[in-house]
Amino acid sequence: MAGLELLSDQGYRLDGRKATELRKVQARMGVFAQADGSAYLEQGNTRALAVVYGPHEMRGSRSRTLHDRAAINCQYSMATFSTAERKRRPHGDRKSTEMSLHLKQTFEAAIMTQLYPRSQIDIYVKILQSDGGNYSVCVNAATLAVIDAGIPMRDYVCACSVGFVDETPLADLCYAEESVSSLSVALLPRGGQIALLQMDARLHQDHLEALMEAAMTACKGVSKVLDEVVRQHLQEAAVLNVCP
Amino acid sequence: MAADMRLPRVRKTLSVSESASHRRDLVVPGDIITSDTGFMRGHGTYVDDDKLTASVAGEVQRVDKLICVRPLKTRFNGEVGDVVVGRITEVQQKRWKVETNSRLDSVLLLSSVNLPGGELRRRSAEDELTMREYLQEGDLISAEVQSVFSDGALSLHTRSLKYGKLGQGVLVQLSPSLVKRQKTHFHNLPCGASVILGNNGFVWLYPTPGQQEEEAGGFYTSLEPVSLADREVISRLRNCLLALAAHKVLLFDTSLLYCYESSLQHQVKDILKPEVMEEIVMLTQQKLLEQEG
To answer: Which range marks the domain in which residue A184 is found?
Structure first.
């Protein structure tokens, strides 16, 4: 490892967190009036905006129509100014195509698509500021947007990344920590089902269990925060809706 | 030209009262509503391990043994008899596809429109070829829901003189849950304009027609210039609708009219300013309460 001490002897990380501590999560639902559902979410310095349209009639190629369930269309993008160096990413960037596919798989597991045959649900996510854990932040933001759109889901989908440093699992990695071997998990917390598990780096088999355990705990922590946001939003909206 | 500018402000947080913050009937996806198997599963719920679980965030509604969860915001769920305003998206054989803010595009069959030239007329092959002359892509129509298909798509009809193609006017798209169900959704307001409050949240504002056009079958649209006074009334009504929607006030003829009356002391463009909006909506709500009791 190049010089950087990711976990100090006292057990603190670069940004002063403990090993299992999450970054601060702040979120708001219903940020756009035009879309069916929308949400903004910050997790530490990573910020994402998610917008959901649908379920609506199939647009574009009719051939993608599924006759027994809704098709989910995800699009992930990063703002030009989201990273340290400005970078224009015209759509079609390989990394974002892959990310879109992962998001699609995640939400196909959670949304009850069989209720809307022959329709389409669009989920657009944009990273406004990137500081690690882009996939997890996108999933969390998109979950809130889907709930805001009133689309039936089995459960929340919560995602979190976990890294492994000095025999210790670190939860919710920031950009500087992402160089270590890490994995991202998207979890349906109540049932403990895994919607997506992604690992790009090498890791000894013996450590996997500890890492998974830490990831599950972190996801459940995220789900608590999201739950609070949704309930708060629900109460505010219910107060405004004076009439039945 | 003087431009109106304002600085960013801290968002007003609603004070949720104690009684409201402990409402038991608000659920989020994954919440278990009941583990009693004696209940029936309605919209917005699913059964997981014999437990009735919510799948959307919203309010639990219980009718006898049926439990539903109604989300706060969704797309339009049409029922037979609903008045809708929609836009033609496609002309197909014997049918038009209409976008009505529903989950799937609605269908308007050639056999469920009144063609010009009398009620009792067979639909011939020529009619199929000239469908685009009656309604083409992008046209707005008002219609009624005739039936609901098994996949949730709506079938519309315009078999009455009050339905048909819409001419000059303004379309406002709002949330379907804001439109109050009423006996009639067509209103000629005394302020000089007419309104169609579609159940699907599409509201059509248009100048009150002078006299009923005869025998046009609802496909005739007037291209006469609309007077400035009428246009001003329509713009004011539009801004009033947006103000009411921003404060989640149910929309029906009386609420719109009261809002219009309250807004008269402001310029049309000023109605959209947040503070003016708040004031107007407050006045409207007051008038509505007075009228009720």
So the answer is: 25-240
